[in-house]
Amino acid sequence: MNISGINSGFIKINQNPIQNVESSTNQNSFANVLKGYLENVDTTVKQASNLTVKAAAGEIENIHDVTIASQKAKVALELTVTIRDKAVEAYQETMRMQF
User: Fold this and answer.
1) 60: alpha, beta or left, given left = phi > 0 and alpha = psi -120 to 50?
2) H/E stretch holding 33
3) What pLDDT was estimated at residue 19?
4) Is the whole model's pTM more than 0.70, yes or no?
């Protein structure tokens, strides 16, 4: 049984999307953190899509990498949509406040 493909580099399972955001200490704003997070989500989705295409073409022998990447992209998108919905809800609540 060949297990050399386990650390194949396709997937980083415990990767925190916010952890990879690189910004200078002077430019560490909410917009930069959000931009970095969205770029990481986009990269995750593109990676899953590429792996799916390769699997459909028969270029990938280990379907587990494709499944994990797809689920990772799904969770990242669900988290992004949830954050967006909560932000819109908070904005609407703020607009309903009377001053």
Assistant:
1) beta
2) helix 30-56
3) 56
4) no
Give residue for tokens 């704003």: 29
Across the range 28-51, mean pLDDT stands at: 93
Largest CA distance in the chain: 69
Structural contact between residues 65 and 54, judged by C-beta atoms closer than 8 angstroms: no
As a whole number of Å, the CA-based R_g of the chain is 18
Residue-level length of the chain: 99
Element (H, E) at 46: helix 30-56
Is residue 23 scored above 50 in pLDDT?
Answer: no
**Tokens 């270029």 label which residue?**
59
Tokens of 55: 């699997």
